[in-house]
Amino acid sequence: MAEKTSTDPTVAEVMAELAALEDPRVREVNRKHGDDHGVNLGKLRAVAKRLKTQQELACRLWETGDTAARLLALLICRPRAFGRDELDVMLREARTPKVHDWLVSYVVKKSPHAEDLRLAWFADPDPVVASAGWALTTERVTKKPDTLDLDALLDVIEAEMKDAPDRLQWAMNACLAQIGIDRAEHRTRALDIGERLGVLKDYPTPPNCTSPYAPVWINEMVRRQEGGSAS
Question: Are 221 and 181 spatial neighbours (Cβ–Cβ below 8 Å)?
Answer without folding.
Answer: yes
